[in-house]
């Protein structure tokens, strides 16, 4: 019965293919046939079946070849008008679990003498069968397959002379019998698309003859262990549009011919040296250019302003120097072009918003009608050419000038329409030498989409500008730490309903700690440390603070625009600096240390059960350490040092099983140290300055 069902399902699939239904393969079912249920047509598929003209079915003898392994399941078959099978797509269906395997007896495929395209994914396949029809193949794609035998590449290379598409990726190198990058690869002179990517253990150099392939349009050799010199001396008439050699160990200079006039997408992040080629300004078709993670030096050429179609420029992590050329304001001004996603997930912004561009931590963008400019971690100096850069005629702009040597003041309304002139989602200028007051020109119309403002580690002065309240519905990250800002924390900060990261530590803010700050219910990272704040920590209930709750961190999806936002957050505890990446799905931190706060530690803090770091050191806190802190089960670091706390260390703190750093030194504590391993490991800092603490041998 099951065998009859398998044949019936298979024949129904072939009939569907013969009817020419859109987006339906002639072997649609992909479950193992013994588990397959009935197949029926309904809705649009049924209507299409009724209206579609008759097309020839696959020849009977060819269907028999497929029936010999039909019980295993397969994804798709395509036949030409004569009924010959010309394409096979063999994939493990997405509903299979990781411990299931799909086995194929490939020998019947020898009967498919007209096969032109073969695609294998996630299946156990006898790869030696490829040789049975290699002379007819024009497209071969192999990915993530636990192949039963290595691909006999050495024997196949001479037979695949018809190939126009060769894509092999996400395989271990031992699944390849022979070096795929041997010079014989250049005998495939009809190649248009060549992808050999993410082959674990694939080493060697790139054969120079690849640059001579006359029809090659896309070359992707990324994420391998390739060494030697990067490809040089490309033919001026090469049709190559997409070039990705990133994440290897290639060396050498960037030859101007590598970035020819026809390039659209280029990523050459390796170990390259030398300067930026001025001639790149002639590659006006470029939409994405990444030279990140190299050792390039010198200045950004003025001629690059001619890259009118550019949507993403990433020159981060190099040794670039000099000023940012004013001509960069001309980049990408042909904003009508849209290029498909280039590897990083786009933001799925609501349909009402005008700005479709997205980014990953401002270090890579998928492009829409906007522009991404990433120059972080270089040695650029001088003044940012604001007037030129803010003349961008884009829907959305991402800037990352972080970790350079940029100077001068941020512009105000009198000099240029600061943010209002350019709609942005993220502004990142941290780790520079910018000075002056923060401009009070966060225009609401221009900043409706502003999600992140990171201006830390500069020399900015003055108060927090009132116009920031205009961003109450959009701003998720505000990092103004390590500056010289001053004044009282504004009461209106309670209106920042979307705020998840507020980091304003290491400034000169003064006045009482506003109780209204606890109205920002989505906060996950609050750093007010190293200021001159006074007053008490509120004793109100914290149960409404969703961001600090364990269930919020691990079960609730964060705002789509910052799901992958990450930034290094340094917490300065006693004796060490703790560095976290505030990936917003994982990090929860409260740091009020090094201020002038007084009064008791509120027991209500024990309800913030998602906290990973709690810093209250170097204040004037009094009273007992609340037992309720033992509820903070996720706590990794707790710093209560240098206060005026009294009494015993609660035994309840032994429930903090994740605690790796704890400091309660320089207080007035007495009595026994809790009898548990984690507090026994912390004896040196526990006893420092507290002679009345009694050491009890902790359990082993």
TrEMBL record:
Residues spanning the signal sequence: 1-26
Coiled coil: none
GO cellular component: plasma membrane
Entry-linked Gene3D superfamilies: Ribonuclease Inhibitor
Membrane topology designation: Single-pass type I membrane protein
Keywords: Cell membrane, Glycoprotein, Leucine-rich repeat, Membrane, Receptor, Repeat, Signal, Transmembrane, Transmembrane helix
Localization of this protein: Cell membrane
InterPro entries noted in UniProt: Leu-rich_rpt (IPR001611), Leu-rich_rpt_typical-subtyp (IPR003591), LRR_dom_sf (IPR032675), RLP23-like (IPR046956)
Family of the protein in this entry: Belongs to the RLP family.
PANTHER family documented for this protein: LRR RECEPTOR-LIKE KINASE, LRR RECEPTOR-LIKE SERINE_THREONINE-PROTEIN KINASE FLS2
Protein known as: Uncharacterized protein
């Amino acid at each position: 019965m099951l065998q009859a069902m398998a044949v019936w399902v298979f024949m129904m699939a072939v009939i569907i293919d013969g009817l020419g239904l859109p987006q339906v393969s002639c072997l649609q079912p992909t479950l193992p046939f013994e588990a397959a249920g009935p197949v029926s047509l309904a809705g649009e598929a049924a209507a299409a079946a009724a209206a579609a003209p008759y097309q020839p079915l696959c020849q009977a003898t060819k269907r028999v070849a497929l029936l010999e392994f039909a019980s295993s399941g397969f994804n798709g078959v395509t036949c030409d008008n004569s009924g010959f099978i010309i394409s096979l797509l063999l994939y493990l269906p997405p509903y299979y679990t990781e411990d299931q395997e799909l086995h194929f007896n490939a020998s019947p495929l020898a009967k498919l003498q007209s096969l032109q395209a073969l695609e294998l994914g996630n299946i156990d396949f006898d790869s030696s069968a490829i040789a049975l029809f290699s002379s007819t193949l024009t497209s071969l794609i192999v990915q993530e397959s636990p192949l039963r035998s290595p691909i006999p590449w050495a024997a196949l290379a001479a037979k695949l002379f018809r190939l126009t598409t060769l894509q092999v990726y996400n395989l271990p190198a031992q699944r390849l019998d022979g070096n795929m990058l041997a010079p014989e690869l250049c005998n495939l002179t009809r190649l248009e698309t060549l992808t050999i990517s993410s082959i674990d253990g694939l080493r060697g150099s790139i054969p120079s003859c690849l640059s001579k392939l006359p029809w090659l349009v896309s070359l992707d050799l990324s994420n391998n262990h390739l060494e030697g010199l990067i490809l040089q001396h490309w033919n001026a008439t090469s049709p190559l549009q997409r070039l990705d050699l990133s994440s290897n160990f290639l060396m050498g200079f960037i030859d101007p011919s590598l970035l020819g006039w026809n390039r659209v997408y280029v990523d050459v992040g390796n170990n390259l040296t030398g300067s930026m080629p001025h001639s790149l300004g002639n590659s006006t078709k470029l939409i994405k250019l990444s030279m990140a993670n190299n050792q390039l030096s010198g200045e950004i050429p003025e001629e690059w302003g001619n890259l009118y179609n550019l949507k993403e420029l990433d020159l981060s992590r190099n040794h670039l120097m000099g000023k940012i050329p004013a001509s960069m304001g001309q980049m990408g001004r042909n904003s009508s072009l849209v290029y498909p996603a280039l590897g990083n997930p786009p933001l799925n912004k609501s349909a009402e918003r005008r700005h479709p561009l997205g980014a990953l931590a401002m270090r890579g963008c998928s492009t829409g009608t906007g522009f991404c400019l990433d120059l972080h971690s270089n040695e650029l100096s001088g003044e940012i050419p604001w007037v030129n850069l803010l003349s961008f005629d884009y829907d959305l702009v991402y800037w990352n000038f972080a970790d350079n040597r940029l100077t001068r003041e941020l512009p105000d309304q009198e000099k240029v329409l600061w943010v209002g002139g350019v709609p942005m989602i993220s502004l990142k200028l941290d780790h520079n030498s910018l000075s002056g007051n923060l401009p009070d020109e966060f225009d609401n119309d221009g900043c409706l989409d502003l999600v992140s403002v990171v201006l830390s580690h500069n020399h900015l002065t003055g108060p927090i500008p009132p116009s920031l309240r205009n961003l109450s519905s959009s701003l998720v990250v505000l990092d103004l730490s390590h500056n010289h800002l001053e004044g009282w924390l504004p009461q209106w900060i309670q209106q920042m309903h979307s705020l998840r990261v507020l980091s304003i530590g290491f400034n000169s803010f003064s006045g009482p700690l506003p109780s209204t700050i606890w109205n920002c219910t989505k906060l996950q990272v609050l750093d007010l440390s190293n200021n001159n704040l006074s007053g008490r920590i509120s004793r109100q209930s914290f149960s409404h603070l969703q961001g600090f709750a364990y269930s919020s961190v691990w079960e609730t999806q964060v705002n789509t625009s910052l799901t992958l936002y990450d930034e290094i957050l340094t917490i300065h505890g006693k004796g060490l600096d703790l560095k976290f990446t505030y990936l917003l799905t994982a990090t929860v931190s409260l740091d009020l240390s090094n201020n002038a706060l007084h009064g008791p530690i509120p027991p209500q803090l024990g309800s913030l059960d998602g906290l990973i770091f709690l810093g209250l050191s170097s204040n004037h806190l009094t009273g007992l350490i609340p037992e309720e802190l033992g509820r903070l089960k996720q706590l990794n670091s707790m710093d209560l040092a240098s206060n005026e706390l009294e009494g015993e260390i609660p035994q309840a703190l032994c429930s903090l099983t994740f605690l790796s750093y704890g400091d309660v030194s320089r207080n007035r504590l007495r009595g026994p140290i809790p009898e548990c391993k984690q507090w026994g490991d912390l004896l040196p800092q526990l006893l420092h300055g507290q002679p009345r603490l009694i050491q009890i041998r902790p359990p082993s």
